[in-house]
Amino acid sequence: MSEEKASGPVVGIDVGGTGIKGAPVDIANGKFARGRVRLLTPLPATPRAVADVVGEILQQIGVAGPAGLTLPAVVRAGVVETASHIDHAWIGVDAVELFAKATGRPVAVVNDADAAGIAEVRFGAGRGRAGVIVVVTLGTGIGSALFVDGTLVPNSELGHLPLHHGEAEDWAAESVREHDDLSWKKYAHRLQAYLELVQRVLWPHLIIIGGGVSKKAGKFLPLIELQTPVVPAQLHNDAGIIGAAMIAPRG
Questions:
Q1: 33-64: burial string, b at 16+ Cβ within 10 Å, e else
Q2: N or C terminus of the chain with fewer C-beta within 10 Å?
Q3: Which residues on adjacent β-strands are paired with residue 50?
């Protein structure tokens, strides 16, 4: 991630399962330069269809230059490796090449939880904190971003840790709380089990809880007791867009 100062706002686009959101970002202070644009994620969310929607968002934003994008997938050297929450047609696709051709501009592509973590560690709850930090995003699944002294260890995928004879995200994702109509107390109990597992595996210095549900952290975080400090994210749903802009190519 380059620290070179940009001459103007940089576009970040966050590709999600239901919506694709983008905004111009002042990457010097981690703030939107103006309001975001959101369009529905196409169904099926094939690479070509998503690229077309990204092009529409860029046109509406109207800011030239490079862009950063997120995908809900493992992305290595620009290539999509997994498809837990994305159309399986993405596997093996060079997403950087796809979006660059579709938009006619330089792009970078990163895992969505990693993007949120980059923003949160730089501008949010992890700002100025050293050591091992884990950012956990609770949503349709469980995303994660792992940092060591501010440096990202990409594609950590801690939502797939084994828990209760399955994957952790099948037990403790925000979507599971909604689907099973869990009380906040019962959800906190599930999240406690998951975070204890993360603690046993990594012994981080700080755990940051992100995703949309972090806005309601007061309903469940006080019920969780760990040796590791657990705090709510500060950037909430803006983190993905801000982090995406931060990883955009610099000229």
A1: beebbbeebeeebbbeebbebbeebbeebebe
A2: C
A3: none
In a shared domain, residues 52 and 103: yes
pLDDT digits (tens, 9 = 90+) for 152-161: 999 999 999 9
Q: Is residue 119 part of a domain?
A: no
- pLDDT, tens only, 54-101: 999 999 999 999 999 999 999 999 999 998 778 999 999 999 999 999
Three-state DSSP state, 116: helix
Q: Which tokens go with 91?
A: 């596997």
Q: Return the bridge partners of 110, or none.
A: 70
Q: Name the strand (E) or helix (H) holding 38.
A: strand 37-40
Report residue 167 as tokens: 């994957």
The DSSP string of 150-209 is: TEEE----GGGSEETTEETHHHH-HHHHHHTT--HHHHHHHHHHHHHHHHHHH--SEEEE
**CA dihedral sign of residues 231, 234, 240, 243:** negative
Report the predicted TM-score, pTM, of the whole model to 2 decimal places: 0.94
